[in-house]
Amino acid sequence: MSSVVTLGLGALIAVICVVLAGGKGASWCRSYAQEIEDPRPRHTWLLGTAWQAGLALLASGLTIGWACSLNAPLEGLLAAPVAVALCQAGSVDAVCHRLPNVLLGVAAFPALMSSIVRLVQQPSASAVLTWLGAAALVLVVTTVLAFIGSGMGMGDVKLMGVAGLWLGSLSLLAPLGALMGGFLLAGPVALALMALKRIGRKDPMAFGPYLIAGILLSWALSIS
């Protein structure tokens, strides 16, 4: 793929992501959050049009730019919609402690397409089995964690299911690496907030944004 074509497609995908995320996407997220009564939505400015458009531009630009720097432009073009949808879902979670099924579904479609493209490029039965095994493994692990009181909810389990679909075709351990990254990012933040008395030990904390950061970091490292 020539650099001119890559630049054109990258710009087109970024613009589409920005328009959709900052327009109908942000509007839907605000309506969704307004219907949540417990816990009461906070930091609703995160769902504003300008913020969501800027976040979409940042997410799509970084994913495409990173992949292109590694001479893997197609990987970045396919990853951008996944990253944007996940970031929008993470914004909703930060506001009202919910990961909407609709946004996870939006992320799951390009995530699945991305994995299918990888598998078509290097077809083998072992690659397919690794992909399915990685997706199943992270889903089982997160389900167990959700039921033993780790602080994860079923929305987080579904989120990691999407991560398995996307990252499992890169390596068996990539989805688990994303999960570990989420915990490593959330832990210090939780300790800092408790030290500042912003939250108590038993107060709920939105875990989705940290898992999403872990997912994106795992993707970036896995394609390196």
From TrEMBL:
Keyword Membrane: yes
Keyword Transmembrane belongs to the record: yes
Keyword field: Membrane, Transmembrane, Transmembrane helix
Ranges for domain Prepilin type IV endopeptidase peptidase: 86-187
One annotated GO molecular function: aspartic-type endopeptidase activity
UniProt xrefs under Pfam families: Peptidase_A24 (PF01478)
TM regions (residue ranges): 49-70, 101-120, 127-152, 172-193, 205-223
GO annotation, cellular component aspect: membrane
Name of the protein in its database record: Prepilin type IV endopeptidase peptidase domain-containing protein
Organism name: Actinomyces bowdenii
